[in-house]
Amino acid sequence: MGAASLNGLVFRFAREDGGIGAVTSSVSGVEARLKALMLRGLDGDSAAQRDLLSALSGYLRAYFARRLGRDASDIEDLVQETLLAVHLKRASYDRAQPFTPWAYGVARYKLLDHYRRIGSRAEAPLEDAGALFAADDSAPREARRDLGRLLDGLPERQRNLVRDVKITGLSIEEASQRSGMSASAVKVSIHRAVQAMARRARDEDR
What we know:
Blueprint: H1 6-16, H2 27-42, H3 46-68, H4 75-88, H5 99-117, H6 130-133, H7 138-152, H8 156-168, H9 172-179, H10 183-205
Helix pairs in contact: 2-3, 3-4, 4-5, 8-10, 9-10
């Protein structure tokens, strides 16, 4: 797990996974969330556009891995090519239509283009959007396991604060009341804890 994304990983688990728990597999829920981001991006919200591409990257990586094998060297290139295509072609998206089939179409075209480039006779059958947005929780499950291990390396008080604020979603004030620490001390402790986790993650990646 990359150290630079550690803090974002904690927030992503809290926001999307309801804490360190199961990843939702509802394509309809994915459709609502991603379409909302797409529409906001089309309206000029650059942060929503970044969030959309970030969310898509995980689905794309799993989709291409299922088609090419998890150890295929071209997966990351395909992910980046598809994200670029989504960004460049976004003006062609019909707001009245679902987003996930449109995104799936872009991904499938990139996969077919990849097969042509390498001279493969493999096929990419036309499927529904679930082919791209089907649940594939191996990466999140591994990341949760890594996160739990890094949390276990913290002193108990810091570990509890990180879980309360970053995962459970308590406010600084609520965590302050629960821990008996001042709000400023809670902020400092959490900051130091995340830095310590990041250092450990960096050391393990070397």
